Amino acid sequence: MTDLHPVRRALLSVSDKTGLIELGKALSARGVELLSTGGSAKALREAGLTVKDVSEVTGFPEMMDGRVKTLHPMVHGGLLALRDNDTHVAAMNEHGIGAIDLLVVNLYPFEAALARGAGYDEMIENIDIGGPAMIRAASKNHLFVNVVTDVQDYEALLAELDRNDGQTSYAFRQRLSQTAYARTAAYDAAVSNWMATAIEEKTPRRRAFAGELKQTLRYGENSHQEAAFYTDGSNRPGVATAVQLQGKELSYNNINDTDAAYELVAEFDPADSAAVAIIKHANPCGVAKGATLAEAYQKAFDCDRTSAFGGIVALNQPLDAETAAKITEIFTEVVIAPGASEEAKAVFAAKKNLRLLLTDGLPEPRKAITAYKQVAGGMLVQDKDVGYVGMEDLKVVTEKAPSDAQMQDMLFAWKVAKHVKSNAIVYVKDSATVGVGAGQMSRLDSANVAAAKAGRMAVELGLEESLAKGCAVASDAFFPFADGLLEAAAAGGACVIQPGGSMRDDEVIKAANEAGLAMVFTGMRHFRH
Fold first, then answer.
1. How many other CB atoms are there within 10 angstroms of residue 425's CB atom?
2. What does residue 512 show for φ and ψ, rounded to 5 degrees?
3. What's the DSSP call for residue 525?
4. Contacts of range 28-35, beta carbons closer than 8 Å, 24 or more positions apart
5. Which of 37, 87, 112, 519 could form a disulfide with 496 if both were Cys (CB 3.0 to 4.6 A apart)?
6. Are strands 274-280 and 311-315 parallel, antiparallel or unpaired?
7. Distance of CA 170 to the CA centre of its chain
8. CA-to-CA distance for 146 and 197, rounded, in angstroms?
9. What are phi and psi of 93, to 5 degrees?
């Protein structure tokens, strides 16, 4: 018994009509009878194709503003009937139900309505009912029925029909079915998650996750791991929405690091000043503001030139030629920016392996979105850390008050620390990082690492004293003991910004006073694991 089955009758009912006419003509030329609904039928008919309205098949007109048109035994019987089951065939004959061999459906544009911020009533009207019901019916009966939910599969369908003389194989129908179930799952996930937000349900009893394949990756974090990149349809500016102008395919680590870099640099308003972040292994090795991007890049680069090699560079303003020339002086994996001049593109064109990603803008750092992290047996779900601290939120806790310039550096350091893996210690001077301690098991170790980097770079730059001399120090969480604070002071720290809240705050404040430091509390921490 062959697993090939002919396609003689097709039902086409699509919201996205891209490629519909071409598909209809191709199927008609192959002798396939066309059924359709509403706007799809109208479009096909206007293209000169012979189409039978579903209402002719069901004997019922479309009603209730199109809400009821395909939910009928004449449709679902044609999709669900097992062609090799005598009872099913007898029922079809008795009730005049014709077999439907191909279903082409894409759903009401719920995700598009969500992306443009449609109101509640409009969102409800964009929830498709008949489409998912037909898709699930056809997918279940993939032993005989083909179901196409994506315009990208039109060509594959026609190629399969040509390859098999108007028939499709079981393996082909299985692949279509899997894709179809994933589509309805993603659609339901979008509806469910939107509704949870709309009704302010913070922890729904069930939560759905979905994504669309953007890219199959060569491997994951390591060469023995398989990996792929899926997008969630949120259209947040960044690596998922960027256009890659040049360079080889992004790797798993490239994508992860580029996301970290762009989210960090977006903390700095481009209308205020140019900013550059250089990332290595998801941690910043240099972040700076400047009067120009070139100046900001140089300051960021001078924080840790060694780690910057092979790093990711993110800019908060469109890339210009001068900055592009500076970036190409060392090996850089990826550059991401909200645009680039033609001159800058020309500079990068000489570096064929350098990936240049351009976006339509910067992500909004204070926009609340949901963050997920997989653990064995489940998912951790939380709001993305969009915590913000301004000058008015800072509480001076030491005898010595920081100067205005120190306040600015502390706030800069605080924004960077938010994007450094915990335990995080960040040294900043003149709106540029001069030392970063990341991911250590103790805050004392992070302070040591940041100090060592600042000292090493001073030697490389031919300076007589550490870059950290007179710097502002940020700690992503409170100092549990005074030792980490004193280590930062010994490195050259002059002022400190930290959350506060330790049982030993009094001890830490006393140590800061004795060391002549100015210190402020934020009342907020920024753990990043």
1. 35
2. -65, -40
3. -
4. 30/161, 30/166, 31/166, 32/7, 32/8, 32/101, 32/102, 33/8, 33/9, 34/10, 35/9, 35/10, 35/11, 35/100
5. 519
6. antiparallel
7. 35
8. 35
9. -65, -40
The Cα 365–Cα 410 span in angstroms is 18
User: What would the pLDDT profile of 23-60 be if each residue is shown by its tens digit?
Assistant: 999 999 999 999 988 888 899 999 999 988 877 777 76
Q: Which two structure tokens, joined as six digits, stand for 77? A: 């019987």
Query: Smallest Cα–Cα separation from 140: which of 80, 78, 99?
Result: 80
Catalytic position from the list 17, 52, 88, 281: 281
Which tens digits make up the pLDDT trace of 284-314? 999 999 999 999 999 999 999 999 999 999 9
Strand partners, 332: 311
**Number of alpha carbons in the 13 Å side-chain half-sphere of residue 277:** 30
Cα-based distances in Å from 260 to 216, 280, 285, 418, 446: 20, 9, 12, 11, 20
Query: Among the options 17, 25, 72, 140, which is catalytic?
Result: 140
Beta strands in 163-231 (DSSP E): 167-168, 212-217, 227-231
**How would you classify the pairing of strands 9-14 and 102-106?**
parallel
- Our answer to whether residue 529 is catalytic in this structure is no
Q: Is 140 one of the catalytic residues? A: yes
Structure tokens at 71: 């939910």
Q: Which two tokens stand for residue 478?
A: 């409170």
Nearest-angstrom CA–CA distance, 426 and 437 = 6
**Element containing residue 207 per DSSP (H, E):** none
In which band, very low, low, confident or very high, does the pLDDT at 208 lie, cut at 50, 70 and 90?
Answer: confident
On the question of pLDDT at 1 being above 50, the answer is: no
- What is the distance between the alpha carbons of residues 186 and 191, in angstroms, rounded to a whole number? 9
Output DSSP code: residue 153. Answer: G
Confidence grade of residue 499 (pLDDT, cut at 50, 70, 90) = very high
Q: How far apart are CA 499 and CA 515, in angstroms?
A: 19
Among 8, 11, 20, 21, residue whose Cα is nearest residue 48: 21
